[in-house]
Amino acid sequence: MKGTLITFEGSEGSGKSTQIKLIFDYLKKQKRKVLTLREPGGVEISEKIRRVLLDVKNKEMAKECEMLLYMAARAQMVKEILIPALGDGTIVLCDRFLDSTICYQGYGCNMDIDLIQRIGQFVTQGIKPHLTFVFDIETEEGLNRISRARDRIESRPVSYHTRVRAGYRELSKRDPRRIKLIQGNLGKEEIHEKVKSFVNPLLGIA
Fold first, then answer.
1. Residue 167, H or E segment
2. Is the CB of residue 180 less than 8 Å from the CB of residue 134?
3. What does DSSP assign to residue 90?
4. Strand order across the 34-38 sheet
5. Contact present, 127 and 3 (Cβ < 8 Å)
6. CA dihedral 118, 101, 88, 2 (to 10 degrees)
7. How many other β-carbons are positioned within 10 Å of the β-carbon of residue 181?
8. Which of 183, 173, 181, 174 is nearest to 198 (CA)?
9. Phi, psi dihedral angles at 172 (to 5 degrees)
């Protein structure tokens, strides 16, 4: 595929959504064809699944159901948008991807990570990010940044979110060429410059 997939990851309140917007605006100024997506979501079916996943009323949802719903939402987005976009040379900036499921359901919910990776390989049709940013922040600091009502996942205990953060840090150690761990407690412009320092060589921007 001619396009480039760059994913943005991190635990709650890490600032990844802010960084996606900044790099999107930057690439637009560079006259690049660029698209932003979010997970779960991005297309109508996946957005409906998102509402089910994040609804605080769904307290009894089994972790197996949760993991498979995230995968289902991803499969639909991959088929409808991601594959066509990468096929026509678009730079895709995705707010979460398979690494999120590994960390949130694998590490966070103590599920079989090998199983998640096998299912993930199937639903992504083998697509892997060219570059992944993980914005790392102290767990409680990140949760305290949430100013609206918390969703079903955000409402989980601090111990859960601590496991998620540990998962991201572990992934970054295992795959440092793809995954860049960036401290999320820096100023947003300083973080943006760090992001650009990895994006520019990947995309051939001088």
1. helix 158-174
2. yes
3. -
4. 34-38, 91-95, 4-10, 131-136, 179-183
5. no
6. -60
7. 18
8. 181
9. -65, -30
Q: Give SS3 for 181.
A: strand
CA distances from residue 190 to 51, 77, 89 in whole angstroms, order as listed: 33, 32, 29
Domain total in the chain: 1
Residue 130 domain boundaries: 4-203
Q: For tokens 């995705």, name the residue.
A: 94
135 close to 95: Cβ distance less than 8 angstroms: no
Read off the pTM: 0.97
Q: Specify the amino acid at residue 196.
A: K
Helices (DSSP H) in the chain: which residue ranges? 16-29, 44-54, 63-77, 83-87, 98-101, 113-123, 139-144, 158-174, 188-203
* pLDDT score recorded for residue 1: 84
CATH number (domain holding residue 128): 3.40.50.300
Per-residue pLDDT tens over the stretch 51-109: 999 999 999 999 999 999 999 999 999 999 999 999 999 999 999 999 999 999 999 99
CA distance 187 to 190: 5
